[in-house]
Amino acid sequence: MRYLKLLYVQVLIGIALGVTIGHFSPEAGVSLKPVGDAFIALMKMLIGPIIFTTVVIGMAGMGDLRKAGKVGLKAFVYFEAATTLALVIGLVVANLVRPGEGLHVDVASLDAKSVSGYAEAARHSGGAADFLLHLIPRSFVGAFAQGDVLQILVVALLFGAALGRLGEHGRPVMNLLNDVSRVFFGIVAFVTRLAPAAAAGAMAFTVGQYGLGAIAKMAQLIACVYLTSAAFIFLAVGLILRACGFSLWKLLKLLKEELLVVLGCSSSEPALPALMEKLERAGCARQTVGLVVPAGYSFNLDGTCIYLTMAALFIAQATDTPMDLGQQLSLLVILLITSKGAAGITGSGFVTLAATLAATDQLPVAGMALILGVDRFLSESRAITNFIGNAAATLVVSKWNGDFDPTRGGEVLASDDGR
Asked: In terms of CATH, what superfamily is 2-412?
């Protein structure tokens, strides 16, 4: 019975209960959607203050903008390398397995109206200039009101840099923010106890709305995305962590509760505060956690990248649209851009796919209707892979930056061979 007191066991029970309700009573399952939505909303409410206090305290503690710039540069290099690798892996697997081959779908028969909203959102996502301007909030509190992670990060960096220059005069503000940070992490602990109910509600809605039959119809595509994501995590991410002296298995064990929350809610955002707290307790410097994790949630979307390449080629194969090597490499280049441009957009995976298909001018945007019914199931794979990828990125950047402290609990992540 003591196992029932463990949060990850409770979340597993919640997921199983949600699947059961959604399958045997779809209407009841759909009606439970607000339960999952409420939990996600509560966690999103806490993300802004937690990012702000963590980044400000870390920046002010650095006392040097050049140090923050070095952390940002190292994080950017890692993000670009990891997401490019994810895109390439997705492209290779989609060519080898060819999950859409043999469907012979007539584009004219597809319901283009069902995906018109995503295509419209993609057209209004803007270019590079719009994205850079979007980083600047209209007011100081506007970033928090909008809940925009990147805007909050910009405000926190400026505030932290200014506070650091005050020296001892800024000490009272630092002490206050430390206390405020503890309060918000305390609220996170309260809200996290609702995770089992949230997982049950979210899974009940997903299965009730779309049905397990949707999985059977698109089993090959779903299996390809999940297996490719697993290969990326256990091979690519695992080897990178091992090279830096960390164990992937120990990292997964450390984050098991958060991973189940991500699985149940089909979103990695509710687990962001707990991820930041655990990585800091495991030995990563606060300033590194504060910079890398929020930025990674927008720019280090490994799972989304795998999904994008596989979904695009699935549509090409299913609609008998030929794509030679040159066209696929062009698709890869476009994805390197569009996968970053959709940062912060709700439903970014599907919106980015729409933007990519439109940009290629070769693949039919209406082909997205083929995977619309199973996108919710695919989003779980995206969220889990993104979450693990950002946890790994923070550890690697912290090690590269020389601010990882193994004496602060880092032994729980150390590889068995001592590297």
From this structure: Sodium:dicarboxylate symporter (1.10.3860.10)
